[in-house]
Amino acid sequence: MYICENNQAVKKNSILITGASGQLGSVLVEAIIGIYGSNSVIATDIKPIENSNCHTKLLDATDQEAIVQIILKHNVTEIYHLAAVLSANGEAHPTRTWDVNMVSWLNVLEASRRCQVQKVFFPSSIAVYGGQFERENTPQNSALNPATVYGMSKVSGEQWGQYYFSRYGLDVRSLRYPGIISYQSLPGGGTTDYAVDIYHKAVSQTSFNCYLKPDTKLPMIYVDDAVRATLELMHFPEASVKTRASYNIQGVSFTPEDVVASIQLWYPGFTASYQPDFRQAIADQWPSSLDDREARTDWHWKPKYTLKKISRKMIGNLKALKNASIKNEDYVTL
Ligand code: AKB
Questions:
Q1: Which of 47, 153, 166, 327 gives a 20 to 30 Å CA spacing to 262?
Q2: In angstroms, what is the span from residue 180 Cα to ligand 1's centroid?
Q3: Are 43 and 25 in contact (CB under 8 A)?
Q4: pTM here?
Q5: In the structure, which protein residues have their CB atom closer than 6 angstroms to any atom of ligand 1?
Q6: pLDDT digits (tens, 9 = 90+) for 123-169
Q7: Interval between CA 331 and ligand 1 midpoint (Å)
Q8: How would you class 328 by CB atoms within 10 Å of its CB: exposed for 0-12, middle for 13-18, buried for 19 or more?
Q9: 271 CB neighbour count, 10 Å cutoff
């Protein structure tokens, strides 16, 4: 039995994760294995999953019966549904993005209802916002008028989750993630991904061409905070989870020029140039920071990572990975 930071005891369970090799999935799977053990975790993705010591399976989540088969075979009690196309990639294939993001989520909800899965997690995003709203400290209950297909799918996804909770009593929980920053995977088609790529460029000592303007301020979160928020929300007593659409969570807000300045503490010669493209228009529709009072009140959310701490982690870990791969190459050539 695992005790969360909020001292809630966690029962042994069987957990299905879709989109397990994505940016959040690859880290969340390891954290969930740490809680429940590798035998209780089924990591699935549309492409083969490498280097995981739990059950792994290919899964196209647009196939509801395939989800049902896995639930029945492994007596699944909880699902973290992470499979999705992100904002920038989504604009290249709007109808496919809707299919992947919405059909798969409805399949997870429906399969959960049919098979009596207890608890389901839906990853929403700052992309639910758009149009006229307060950019700073954006309230959770602002009007949601997203301009991207990804954002539309997240708004509808939140509403479907709330519907399954009210109509069928399915314990659906959800977070609106800011841009997630992690070193474990490469950028994956999001608008906030410049803040991942920039660290790769810094560590490989190349300059960085940013597709956003230097003063574009967006909310971001380090992956450890994102994973901790997810697990704390999922393990909090059901009655305290008041919001069944999705909770705002704020990590730290910064601009591309703030990241460059932060990286310069380690690499003084590091520079960036700026060539805004279509992603600027997406970022301009999003909040600069989020009001996350409801998450703080209902289940005691509190971020730990500042920009400086994120830079230290990103640079340290990417350097370690680079050195390990150089050593590996040496070994191969010997
Ligand atoms: C994206 O940029 O598309 C994602 C997100 C903010 O949901 N990282």
A1: 327
A2: 7
A3: yes
A4: 0.94
A5: 86-87, 125-127, 150, 177, 179, 190-192
A6: 999 999 999 999 999 999 999 999 999 999 999 999 999 999 999 99
A7: 38
A8: exposed
A9: 11
